[in-house]
Amino acid sequence: MYSDMFNETGKRIYRNLMTIAAILIILIIIPSISIFLGMSFNTSQSIARNKLDRSISAGRIYIDSIMSTTENLAGNSVIVQTLDGTRTGSLTSVLDSARTYSLYINAITVYAADGAYYTSSGVTNPPSLDALAAREDIGDFIADGDAEEYISLRTSGIIKAYDGTPYDERSGIISCCRKVYSGDGVVGYIFADVFPESLFEYFSFTGDKLLSGSVAILSFDGGSFASAGLASTDKYIAAHNGSIVGNFMVISNMRNFYGATVRMVVPLRQMILNSLAVCGAILLAGAAMMIATHFVAAATSRYVTGRLDRLLNKMTLSSERLTGRQP
After folding, report:
1. pLDDT for 181-190, tens place per residue?
2. From CA 68, how far away is CA 185, in angstroms rounded?
3. I need a surface site. Which of 36, 82, 111, 260 has the fewest CB within 10 A?
4. Where are the domains of the chain?
5. Which CATH class is domain 63-199?
6. How many Å from the N-terminal Cα to the C-terminal Cα in the chain?
7. Using one digit for the tens of pLDDT, what is the confidence trace for 161-199?
8. How far apart are CA 183 and CA 139, in angstroms?
9. What are phi and psi for residue 62, nearest 5 degrees?
């Protein structure tokens, strides 16, 4: 009878210890998972923001280098004299030399104030100066007496073919524009065209596993460019910084990029895998603690019931001695 009672006591001790341990482990695991998931998400956002910020800085250096080339062209005496009418002839060799010097310029068009134009090699059907001036942003640049340079981002009013290859204007173009002066007056304009894909080389995320597959979007008044094919950029442009859109996280950078806002669309897959790995590690730690608790609880139960058994034996022996001494 006593043996059965002690066995039941041992089981209760084991169950109580396991229950207490399970409750404590759950109370530890749930907040831990929440905290680490938050940390993982915030860390991923921070990495994405830092990468985007560095990419923007590199992109600005690239565009500024092209603007430097247009500045040199605006001071070129051959171009100035051609535009002010003191020289006649082609500017193709001068413009081709500038393209050779700055490898990522896809075409250069020089417009005289009267609408005449000169291009680098391989250009087919450039837009007229009037057509460009009809665009509000370029028209404002031309009309502004204080503005000497301008970056035009657009998806229309684009050369029809570059280097003999037809160009889909839906891909957009970046034009580094500069006024050419002779004396005190403007005698022409330089438009150095760059394909957005050339700029997006500075927004490459392939080297970072977390950001692999990310897409950069430049949004501006009148359109947007994307570094990779997206069915639509509108929902990402409308999203708030750090928000989740479908299977992507949208990171926005409010630094002005020549009138555009730059966004980064990051796939959540790797973030989810990282989060699952963190959760798995925490759950494994919890399971390990439960296993350890099982052995501790079992040992404690055996120890207590063993002590009770020994105590019972001593009491039984003492009782038998006392009983045996009675007359």
Report:
1. 998 899 999 9
2. 21
3. 36
4. 2-37+274-325, 63-199, 212-267
5. alpha beta
6. 29
7. 988 889 988 888 999 999 999 988 999 999 999 999 889
8. 22
9. -65, -50
